[in-house]
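Journal club prep — side note

Before the paper discussion, L.F. wants everyone to see what a predicted structure for a comparable chain looks like in token form. Sequence:
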Amino acid sequence: MEQYRERLSVPVSWWVIGAAAVITLFVITAVPAGLPAGIAVGGISAAVLLTLYLRYGGAVVAVDADKLRAGRAAIERQYLGRVEPLSGEDARNAFGRDCNPAAYLVLRSYLPGAVRVEITDPNDPAPYWLIATRSPERLAAALTAETVARS
């Protein structure tokens, strides 16, 4: 049973901007080249945009009794160490100037917070995972509660 689940979907504003871009491409193609060319360019750009937004926004962060899943990666909870919720300037710095290049990142620029999870597996090259989230406190609590209860 999952204790926490969040899909890191792109915000509505991105969809509005994307739709405006597709319409713009349609118009700047259809006016000089004709309606069929505009429909082709608009359709192709809409399909590409839809694919990109769904893939980028399809990342899931999930915590259950056994594993933490973030994007395409999963790690067993026994290898998780200290958990630190981050927000505001701390989250921005964690993904920027304070970031360890060896860390595993699930970065979404449109999300306000993050959680840094120390990795204790000696065979894992990542010293920590840094996971973008809308609810850093809730994610940290889901990770900490079970980790503390099991130790």
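L.F.'s comment for the group: Residues 12-33 form the longest helix (22 residues). Keep this in mind when we get to the figures.
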